[in-house]
């Protein structure tokens, strides 16, 4: 059974796997958290994000919509994911951008 300690399941569709532990002051919105995963304090996980089994999500982390984290992954303190689908890291021909491309 999942452990719930002073946190809020905000929004419909939050799924916690067996043995998942979510600590205080955490906002969850329509996400999936796998079995035996630990989510630290002051974490926000948005709608549609999927966290695998046996993961550890450290405090002050932001996981946005569209992020999938596989099984047995450690996410360190303060990690912030973005959902920028077109980050302009490459040129249209697929070559990595350089400083000259950013001017």
Fold and architecture overview:
The chain has a single domain (1-79), classed as 3 Solenoid (UDP N-Acetylglucosamine Acyltransferase, domain 1). Strands 1-4-7-10-13 form a five-stranded parallel beta sheet, with no helix packed on it. A four-stranded parallel beta sheet has the order 2-5-8-11, with no helix packed on it. It has 103 residues and is an all-beta fold. The protein is built from no helices and 13 strands. The protein has strands at residues 3-4, 8-9, 15-16, 21-22, 27-28, 32-33, 38-39, 44-45, 50-51, 56-57, 62-63, 68-69, 74-75.
Give me the CATH superfamily.
Hexapeptide repeat proteins
Average pLDDT number: 87
The helix content is under 10%
Evaluate the radius of gyration.
16 Å
Second rung of CATH, namely the architecture: 3 Solenoid
Order of helices and strands: EEEEEEEEEEEEE
Tell me the structural class. mainly beta
Strand order of the largest sheet: 1-4-7-10-13
Largest sheet descriptor: 5 strands, parallel
Quick one: how many beta strands? 13
The dominant shape is elongated
Search tags:
4-stranded parallel β-sheet; mainly beta; single chain; 5-stranded parallel β-sheet; UDP N-Acetylglucosamine Acyltransferase, domain 1
SSE blueprint:
Elements: E1 3-4, E2 8-9, E3 15-16, E4 21-22, E5 27-28, E6 32-33, E7 38-39, E8 44-45, E9 50-51, E10 56-57, E11 62-63, E12 68-69, E13 74-75
Parallel strand pairs: 1-4, 2-5, 3-6, 4-7, 5-8, 6-9, 7-10, 8-11, 9-12, 10-13
């Amino acid at each position: 059974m999942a452990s719930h300690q002073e946190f809020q399941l905000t929004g419909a569709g939050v799924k916690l796997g067996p043995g998942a532990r979510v600590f205080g002051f955490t906002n969850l919105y329509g996400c999936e958290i796998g079995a035996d995963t630990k989510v630290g304090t002051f974490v926000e996980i948005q709608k549609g994000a999927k966290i695998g089994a046996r993961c550890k999500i450290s405090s002050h982390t932001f996981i946005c919509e569209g992020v999938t984290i596989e099984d047995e992954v450690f996410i360190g303190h303060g990690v912030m994911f973005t959902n920028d689908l077109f980050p302009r890291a490459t040129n249209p021909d697929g070559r990595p951008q350089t400083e000259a491309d950013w001017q």
